[in-house]
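User: Please predict structures.

Assistant: First:
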Amino acid sequence: MRGYLWEVTMKEDKYLLTSLDNALHLLDILSHYHSLSLAELSRMSSLSKTSVFRMLHTLEQNQYVEKLPDGRYVLGIKFLYFENNVAARYDVVTIARPYMAGLCFHCRNVVHLGILNGNRIITVHKEISPYDLTVTARVGMNAPAYSTAMGKVILAHLPEIEAGAIIDSFAFKKYSTSSITNKKDFLTALQEIRKSGYATDVNERYQGFGAVAVPIYDHTGHCTAALSIICLSSDVSSLVTENLLELKNTADEISAAMGYRPDP
């Protein structure tokens, strides 16, 4: 039972999708038990058996729940993917934090750590330098991957099929006069990034700001994150000259700490 407070909130929230909320409630109930029958889920959710059955069937088709041979229901294998994905996100932050602090101290610039979520890049951690007054994205902020140095460098180092599916989902938007606005130019940019090993962003997302980013790999050799130094767009060239090696070395240290071993 959700209780009176939930019912009041439900009535006041005009954006709440009732059917989705009920399905999520079923998943929440299942997460507390080894398995439950249709009747038990109906009783515990205060929903009719017909409604619960239809929701469970939909969830089962999408691997969010599994129906056992005895007719009882358990959480599905899709949650293993979510668990691994979320765990990897927080693992890389924990591992990267001290290395990022060292890089931030050395280069005196803001340092960002980002990961892909669908076709967008999310800033999951940042280190702020007291010497740098550059305004940067908050942790949790996200942007289309094609519009950032971190997004571009990750896509350049993903397997071709995986990267291609993400690139095909882009609706390229012009944020500034420097923005990449079509697939052909973006693919050309990725080729250059693969050759150089790093990506830059000069006024592409925000006018006046820039970044230099390099890839981070996990223990499987998958490019799982990116490390970037943020600067004014006018300073990108000098940053590459003065700090690229330190940026790459820091990313390599993080990758090694995550278990990555490059081919000999």
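Second:
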Amino acid sequence: MMQGNEGAVDLVALETERGRNLRQLLLAAARHVGRDVVDGLHARGHDALGSTHTTLLSNMDLAGGTITETAERAGITKQAMGRLASDLHAAGYLEISVGEHDARARTLTLTAEGQRLMLDSLEVMNTLERQYTNMIGKERFAALVEALQALVSDLQER
């Protein structure tokens, strides 16, 4: 199906198939949602925030966690998470402190501005969810969310 007579791969067919697989669809949706969230936060005055910073913000323990824990949750290196934390610290959203039990650990806590950012983020997401619901319909959006919740739950139990 994807190979021609001489064994060459039909790149058009391959691209079509790739565009239909779950991973590609989830990645594309995540890119669009991520851009929409950042645009919404910029409109609320959070101009220092970039799309990569949402990796830290969506994975950190809001009660305070370490860079290492946040990196593990996000599936990126401690060094990459440390750079994101430094950016958000410089922008006034995070405090980075020495760990209580381990001087090598760096604990992340939201500043008052960081808490406002998180509240704004929830409001932006609520607005976006209403927009997405209008795009695909209430029942389809609800079914999408329910299916993704079930899939994530089952995958986490593996």
